Amino acid sequence: MQVANVDSDNPPPCCIRDIIQNKRLQPHFQPIVSIRRRDVIGLEALARGIGEGGSLISPDTLFGLAAVLDTILDLDKLCSKTAAESFLRLHAANPKLILFLNFHPSTVVSDLKGCGELLDVVEHLNLNPHNIVIEILESHIDDIKALSRMVDSYKQHGFLVALDDIGCGHSNLDRIAFIKPDILKIDRSLVQNIHNEYHKQQIFKSLVMLSEKIGGWVIAEGIECQEEAIAVLELGADLLQGYYFARPHAIDAERDNGFQETINDTANKFKSHKLAKIKARKSKQEERLAIVDACLRELTTTKVEDFDRQLNEIIGHYPSVESIHILDETGIQVSDCICNLRHLQPQKTIIFPAPVKGTDHSLKEYYYLLLEAQFAYYTSELYVPRPSGDLCVTVSARFHDANNQLFILCVAMYADFALEI
Question: CB of 244 within 8 A of CB of 226?
């Protein structure tokens, strides 16, 4: 949920009654964009109160005032109605445009009439419920049955439902099973600086996979720079929203609001970024395979009893190698796991020690896929080895030792964070 900083004069609580009675609201909208389609897909409505002298009052302040006088439900309904009315002229210019409406949590448990009032507004304006997304911030709702009833009612009438602030500290992922949302809006706390943070990327990617499994879309909220936009696109986000594209503001259906230039620029940069990364990854893989080939040349003239000595010499020549070990043709480890001591974390090696001779690796992909698929080399997916905590890939290859016995060399190498993700 995006909330712009709006100056106000700290209005007294009583002014909220005047705002509601006289409908002193000004709807602002923030675009939700598709980079792949190079277009604005929807608009999130965020109401501003009109105070004395025409000053604008932020949504947080408005609902804070309404809470004092117990008028949240009336304010929430007015916000939705005003947003829908203003959206009508935008929808007329673009019938495919989608309106995203925020519902205050208290509305859920108080909405005894289901979606009747909003449905009346939508029908009166001749809007299609399919063009309306109800955003629910479920983390503040304790009554899961009331929430489910509300969601079912909206869905039955054709509205779309989004869960807001997914990934925020207080969000409950178990609610996804109850609500079955059409859209997951991933909170800005996960998106901020995501291009530099591996763990955020993996969480984001998991949420994208979850959304795909349940047939939903993912919207990345809080995009504030091009690097974040490119990162979430690469991780699978369907739609993007944030100050990078536009702050919430009054939108004129008759003129270009400047979104298209940013969208096109981001699309072009994303394409260039992907092409450059493919080229860089190819170069990096060639570098890795060159290291593996150099190791194999040493090992083909070495006997099994000398593997440990040879591996200790090899790892000293290659700072990019995290660890190295050898398996026999059945997947059993026949050498020590020789590690780069500069990167080991002693506190982790107690719980997660390096594998020792005799360890069975036969269910590891770098063993059975290498053999059964008859690859010359196998390169694993990215992972973080527990003893070192660094981002790595493992490259494996077959070789015959000095006695012509078949073995598998497994080399874990440090990955370039910016390149691999």
Answer: yes
Residue of 186, 172, 179, 187 lying closest to 155 (CA atoms): 179
> What's the rounded Cα separation, in Å, for the pair 322 and 415?
10
pLDDT of residue 165: 85
- Model-wide pTM > 0.90: no
Domain assignments of the chain as residue spans, ordered by start: 15-257, 281-420
CATH topology of 15-257 equal to that of 281-420?
no
C-beta neighbour count of 141 within 10 angstroms:
18
Under CATH, domain 281-420 is a member of which superfamily?
Answer: PAS domain (3.30.450.20)
**Both tokens assigned to 99:** 């309106």
Residues in the chain: 421
Q: Show the CA angle centred on residue 100, arms to residues 98 and 104, nearest 5°.
A: 160
pLDDT in tens, 61-110: 888 888 888 888 888 889 999 999 999 999 998 999 999 998 776 665 55
What is the spatial distance between Cα 149 and Cα 143, in angstroms, rounded to a whole number? 10
Q: For residue 240, which phi and psi values (nearest 5 degrees)?
A: -130, 150
Using one digit for the tens of pLDDT, what is the confidence trace for 188-198? 999 999 999 98
Which DSSP string corresponds to 286-314?
HHHHHHHHHHHHHHTTS-GGGHHHHHHHH
b/e 181-206 (16+ beta carbons within 10 angstroms → b): bbbbbbbbebbbebbebeebbebbbe
Residue 325 φ then ψ, to 5°: -155, 170
40 sits in which H/E element: strand 39-50
Whole-number Å distance between alpha carbons of 97 and 91: 6
Q: Which of 348, 346, 326 is nearest to 336 (CA)?
A: 326
Q: Are 4 and 28 in contact (CB under 8 A)?
A: yes
Strand order through the sheet with 321-328: 338-339, 321-328, 406-414, 392-400, 377-379
pLDDT at 60: 86
Decide which of 1.10.3720.10, 3.20.20.450, 1.10.8.60, 3.40.50.10860 is the CATH code for 15-257: 3.20.20.450
Terminal C-alpha separation, the chain? 27
Cβ 379 vs Cβ 282: under 8 Å? no
Rounded Cα distance between 370 and 237, Å, is: 33
**Confidence at residue 3, expressed as pLDDT on a 0 to 100 scale:** 41
